[in-house]
Amino acid sequence: MKLSNHINIAVILTFTMLLFGLSFPEVTRAMPQNATLAMSIWGKPSSGHSTLLVANGDDSPRTVSIAAATVTKSPTIVKTATSSRTPTKTKIPTKTKVPTKTKVPTKTKVPTKTKVPTSTKAPTATRTATLVPTISPDQLIYDDFSDMNLDGWVVEEDGNWSASQGDLRPLFGCPADLQNFVISAGDSSWANIEVNVDVNPLAGNTSFILDLRRSVGNPNYFLTFVLNSQNNQGKPFVELSRTDVGQIKTNAITVTNGQWARFTVKILGKRIKVFQVTNGQSSLLLDVTDSGPVISNGGIAFRPQSVDVCDASIAFDTISVRKIISFSSGE
């Protein structure tokens, strides 16, 4: 037998002894103490047995038959991957950028205000060459002199009048013949009417006369407005008179130089009323029913008066005349 086979058998024997719990002393227990062990193996691997030759000191060999262990070769180590290489770091976005603020218009600009005219300034009158506006069918005259002319008025005698400053003014000069300062409107068809006029005593001692139902060759009523005269103890007043009879009635008025004052005169039949209008409120100054002969028809006229002609100045504005058929309730 080859040496390599002996070595293999020895290895197998040793493995078998360990497998069955046998020790080498157990094999040699029956042998003399001075015996020498020598091993040799006979037999074919297919027989299933091995023969152990034991020799002692006297060279008397003993044979021991040992069943050969069947060894199933098992893989000693199956190399299994201890770890699958897993990425230690999978890059995951730590932050997904989400807009913290979605810009929403906090204010949608809506016009809080649509500009609508709160009041449409309509002309209070349409002035024509004959001073008959279209305000109402009963309107006879309306003139605020914004056109700066005297269309529709009649300047009598040689008086000098101007509307160049947006109102009506007599240009007295110095000295001046006040008898020539007359401006008129209307005709004999005017009877029952209401007259409105704004007056401003600009400077000096001024007054004016308003003629009512004025017609050439006939008597008429007239109102004298003394605005700042030494007469009547220096207090302004208004006086109603007739050209054929004289003074009828007088009452005080309130006027200040350089300030506008508004007066309203109503004449219906033989009754005449005079009002002063302040801040839209009318105050009755005169209420007269004439007992004299009837003065039925006629136009109007303005005649300025002044003690200090050279220094005096007066202005008229917003003159209107309309027909009436009765007095207003409460007047």
> Alpha-carbon distance between the termini?
166 Å
The helix count comes to: 2
The proportion of strand residues reads: 25-35%
Helix content: under 10%
Q: What overall geometry do the principal axes of the alpha carbons give?
A: globular
Low-confidence stretches: 1-7, 27-88, 104-134
CATH class of the largest domain: Mainly Beta
**CATH architecture assignment name of the largest domain:** Sandwich
Radius of gyration: 72 Å
Specify the structural class.
Answer: mainly beta
Reading the helices and strands in chain order gives: HHEEEEEEEEEEEEEEEEEE
Q: Which fold does the CATH topology of the largest domain refer to? A: Jelly Rolls
Major sheet: arrangement of strands:
5-8-17-10-11-12-13
Give the tally of β-strands. 18
List the SSEs and their pairings.
Layout: H1 3-20, H2 24-28, E1 41-42, E2 49-55, E3 61-67, E4 139-143, E5 154-156, E6 161-162, E7 169-170, E8 182-185, E9 193-203, E10 206-214, E11 221-226, E12 237-242, E13 246-252, E14 261-268, E15 271-278, E16 281-289, E17 299-306, E18 313-323
Antiparallel strand pairs: 1-2, 2-3, 4-18, 5-8, 6-7, 8-17, 9-14, 9-18, 10-11, 10-17, 11-12, 12-13, 14-15, 15-16
